[in-house]
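pinging the channel bc i need a second pair of eyes. not urgent but kinda urgent?? the chain im working w is below, pasted from the shared doc
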Amino acid sequence: MHDVYWSFFGEKYQSRSEFDAEVRQYQIEISGIDSWQPDEVVIQFPRIRIEYYRDEGGFEYEDFIEIESDNGEFLTGGELLFKVHNAVVEQLREINHHFFEGLNLKSIRSRDNLPVYHLCQGS
C-alpha cells in the first residue's frame, strides 16, 4: 500500500462505500490517476497490530491498534485503510503527521502472536 494517498483528517466514516469513493477521489486529486484498488488483498493475516505515533500536549507517544478482517482470512486495502482511518483519525487529524505513507512490517509475530506493522505517517 505504498502507492496509496490518504490523509487521516476529518471524521470517522460510517459507510465503506462512501470511504472508498473519497479515497478514489483523493487518489485522482493527488496523482492524477485512479489507482485505488480497495478489493486488492494486501495482508494475508486475519488480524494484525499497527503501531503509530500520536501527539498529546506537545509530546509524541507511540500507540497501537489491532485490526481484524471481516472474513477471518485476510485484509483488503479498502477494509484495512477504512478500519485504520476510523481507529486513528481522532488522534491524528490535528497533528502535522496525519498523511498515510504506507505500512511496513516491523515483526512477523508480537508477544501475542500477531504480525506488527508500523504506520508510516508524513506531513
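so The longest helix spans residues 16-31. and Helices lie at 16-31, 77-92. — does that match what u expected or am i reading it wrong
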